[in-house]
Specification:
7 helices, 2 domains, 25% helix, homodimer, six-stranded antiparallel beta sheet, Arc Repressor Mutant, subunit A, Chorismate lyase, DNA-binding, alpha+beta
Chain lengths: 246, 246
DNA sequence: GAGTGGTCTAGACCACGAC
DNA sequence: TCGTGGTCTAGACCACTCT
């Protein structure tokens, strides 16, 4: 069951190695997202370590967002982020802090094309491999607010390429999980400032050259691979973001 | 020495109460910023608890940024943030990621006035109490890049009101500590977009109505009190910020 | 070598959640 | 009532830092 307790730290603590072993088992799909893993006492017995040691290992994975503890119930594999977090960057009329409504999603276009050099790199694909590119408009109460370009690596998201986008959900990440088995675990957003070109302005019902925020996102699955590139544009004057330092 | 081990958890764990007790002793100034606190084993003996318990208490304060552990040396009271972090929002010519230069600081004006209602609230002052308001221009290589308005509650920062701003440092936070005994421990920044008015544009050598990023900062001391309000404006096209989700 | 924080053990009991 | 994670103990030994 174990093969873990090699003589002595080859460069890591025991709980560090345990964490890696458990992470591997999760990545392998031994427990699906949302499922419980065995109790701490069980794991401690199986691996032949003290309870405190297994708890430290689990704490690492909890910090990492892979696991969640629930007192009295058990330790669960994270279900992934829902993607609604894009809204935290924007505040729209009648949408005061706290009240977060999911905007309606409308797919404008969907097409296959060859990956660019950069895309092949971040997706770890061979040069010239195919990607699926989506254009998407998100609206609140019929008012367009966000314009997105989404790029997905192809073998993985093949189910979406063959599917009719009219039946798609307003949130993509839960759909990635259902249809493609891809769990989004982390995202990294880079914010900058730009101006809308003619096409973008028309879609968002704003003037050409209107100031916009540019959110460039990389989304990663539970194994840490980048599986989505997304560019979002929205009215700069609806933008608000809060950050803490230390 | 203790008086901590009351019969039973009145609403908190033992390590939670220990953390609060230690936090109070730090706030009281028993150990200055940058100083070591007693060893874990010593604290455990003094409070009459096990080593693991005191370690949990210390971990809370470490997470909170009040303490820092250094293996083999001891546990130290945090010295506070240096304030140079404002630059992480902006990228200027010749300033690639990583290379962080502190811009030169020039105080444009300094005056006393009555606190606004909001200022009195966030500073926990009585209505009509005095504040010190600074206008400040920050430049890289003689090129103006950031324009700041800084508001400080008055009894606390009296030493700055009486001082000649020509001798001030480029970084204010270390100066707050030296001259006023105020350690900045946390900051919270809110980002949004705006446009420069005539005065602001002139100072930054940009056109009127030029798009700008607005950074509204609240800075807190080690006791968690807000002790500075700062508004910073900079060229929107020089803005770049990265954020992680989960 | 002496002192510090970091890891690990093997137990005990408590608080929460579901049945 | 039972199983879960959360707290706490009293030890042991390891790894880092300074002198």
């Amino acid at each position: 069951m174990s093969t873990l307790l090699t003589d002595h730290t080859p460069g890591q603590s025991r709980y560090g190695k345990l964490a890696q072993a458990l992470r591997d088992r999760i990545l392998q799909g031994e427990w699906a997202p949302g499922e419980v893993i065995p109790a701490e006492s069980t794991l401690a017995q199986n691996y032949g370590v003290a309870l405190g040691t297994i708890r430290q290992a689990l704490s690492l994975l909890v910090e990492d967002g892979v696991l969640q503890r629930r007192h009295g119930k058990g330790t669960f594999v994270t279900k992934g982020v829902d993607g609604a977090s894009m809204m935290r960057f924007f505040r729209f009329r009648g949408l005061d802090d706290g009240a977060s409504t999911t905007p309606h999603s409308h797919i404008l276009s969907s097409r296959l094309r060859a990956a660019s050099v950069r895309e092949a790199q971040v997706f770890s694909m061979s040069q010239g491999a195919q990607v699926l590119q989506l254009e998407r408009l998100r609206s609140l109460d019929t008012e367009p607010c966000l314009l997105e370009t989404i790029v997905l690596p192809l073998p993985l998201f093949g189910a979406l390429a063959d599917s009719d986008s009219h039946g798609w959900d307003d949130l993509l990440y839960p759909m990635y999980q259902e249809r493609c088995g891809v769990v989004i675990q982390k995202t990294q957003d880079t914010l900058s400032f730009s101006q809308l070109n003619a096409t973008q302005a028309k879609r968002l019902k704003l003037a050409v050259s209107h100031p916009c925020v540019l959110v460039e996102r990389q989304a990663f699955d539970i194994a840490g691979r980048c599986v989505e590139l997304r560019t979002t544009r929205g009215d700069a004057f609806s933008f608000k973001y809060t950050a803490q330092v230390q």
